Amino acid sequence: MDASDASPSPGNRTRIGGYEKTLLDMQNKPVHVLSTVIPLVLDRKNHLLESFIDIRQLREAQEKRRDLETQLERSRKMEAIGTLAGGIAHDFNNILAAIIGYSELAAFDLPEDHPSHAHIQEVLKASERAKRIIKQILAFSRRSEPEQSLIRLEEILDEVLTLIRASFPSSIEIRKKIFCENDRIMGDSTQLHQVFMNLLTNARHAVSEETGVVEVAVESVDVTDHAWATKHSIIPGPFLKISITDNGHGMDEVTLQRIFDPYFTTKEKGKGTGMGLAVVEGVVTSHFGTITVDSKPGRGATFAIWLPAIEKGEETAIHGDETIQTGAESVLFVDDEEMLVKFGERMLSVLGYKVQAFTDPLAALEAFQENPKGFDLVVTDLTMPGLSGDKLASEILKIRPDIPIILATGYPRSFTQKRALEIGIRSVFLKPLLATEFSQAIRKVLDGQPDA
Question: What sequence ranges are listed for the domain Histidine kinase (predicted)?
């Protein structure tokens, strides 16, 4: 009997199905299909004809869409958290500026052998740590640009290890070994902090909670192999090699080949974005360094970061002049935070300047309009109610285009140096400024030196 003898059952012509099911192909791999069943009468007997449509591409597209929706939702949450973190950092910056400022003023008033002088120095050290934490918060909220400075690797590693120990079970041993006397490099301490946090977190996930060991080592290495240096896109010379080693499960060659690919992760779904090591590699490369990995299944892994070392001759040149600089010019100082206005007025007076300070930008503008030749410099906050710092600067420059203006902000990316120069502002500085930085910034602008 051929197909023409088959006909739908007169008693039930309804299609049954339209539901998904999973079959196995010839390689025993799952195949997602859409199943439809049609009742038929064949050779006067009732039968069911089941047909399948391969919907693997549809399922993949649906999963990609769900992943994109999840990423979008996560992105929105991170944006909201970043905005909140940035706002908190801004407020904390203002508080910290007053703490640092008044502590420095107190230190100026006391002889170095006074018992309280040492106490004030401890306050300033703690404030410097708080300042670094603010930078980390601003970096998280994507409001901070990379900031290259002379840094000691051991200090960053100590800070990271102190933070990371809280997330490690006490049964996992953490070792630190420093095999060099000079551990100074040029870099962004916030970015490198994130790099080491990421690698140590990965190491913690790789080791056993019962017998886990994670070791951090720093050593001086002179890279002389030009072929190796070219392969890793670095310039031969003195380097610091930071190795993070674990005795975990290790990685096979396939994993090693893809370990730095964006979105590649060996973690369970929902527990990793696959961006960590891609970001790490990007940060290391931006520091003119390279990263290597040595691992085998069951034998742990070693991530080695190679960063150009700063030799002692270069160190002095980088540090530059750290003396407090003074002056006698007239300064218009504007900030909506009263405690910062009081500090600015006091600090500038100590440095020798004549100061008029305002918490109201409109009142400051009115004072300038009344006596535009009475000021040699304007220092203004960016974020103020009534009239923002950039708009205040624009109004002042309309009256007197040659007046030097410094814009202070807690958000380094909220107002760029390029935008400032377009308006006519001479320089943009990040709060809180230490007395040395503050005095040098003012002197540089007044003396007409180009901003770095």
Answer: 87-311
Stronger pLDDT, 165 or 315, i.e. the higher one: 165
Amino acid letter for position 338: E
274 in a domain, yes or no?
yes
The reply to whether 88 and 183 lie within a common domain is no
Say if residues 228 and 244 touch (Cβ distance below 8 Å): no
Q: Which residue has the higher pLDDT, 102 or 142?
A: 102
In which residue are the tokens 């999973």 written?
22
Residues 350 and 191: their CA atoms lie apart, in Å, by 36
Q: How far, in Å, CA of 284 to CA of 51, rounded? A: 55
User: Once rounded to an integer, what is the mean pLDDT over residues 392-411?
Assistant: 91
Q: 154's torsion region: left (phi>0), alpha (psi -120 to 50) or beta?
A: alpha
- pLDDT above 70: percentage of residues in the chain: 83
Q: Give the pTM.
A: 0.51
In a shared domain, residues 334 and 441: yes
Task: Let me know if residue 427 belongs to a domain.
Answer: yes
Same domain, 7 and 80: no
Report yes or no: 6 and 40 within 8 Å, Cβ to Cβ: yes
Q: Enumerate the H helices of 32-114 as residue ranges.
A: 56-109
**C-alpha–C-alpha distance, residues 61 and 201, integer Å:** 33
Contact call for residues 297 and 249 (beta carbons, < 8 A): yes
Nearest to 367 by CA among 338, 345, 396, 390: 396
Whether residue 68 is contained in a domain is answered as no
Query: Given a cut of 50, is residue 3 above it in pLDDT?
Result: no
- Cα separation, 110 vs 103, whole angstroms: 11
Nearest to 222 by CA among 234, 231, 211, 214: 234
Sorting pLDDT into bands at 50, 70 and 90, what band is 4? very low
Higher-confidence position of 270 and 105: 105
Contact 32, 59 (CB under 8 A): yes
Structure tokens at 425: 């502002």
Q: Looking at residues 237-243, what average pLDDT do you find?
A: 93
Three-state helix/strand/coil letters over 177-214: EECCCCCEEEECHHHHHHHHHHHHHHHHHHCCCCCCEE
Of 335, 391, 358, nearest in space to 94 by CA: 335
Per-chain mean pLDDT for the chain: 81
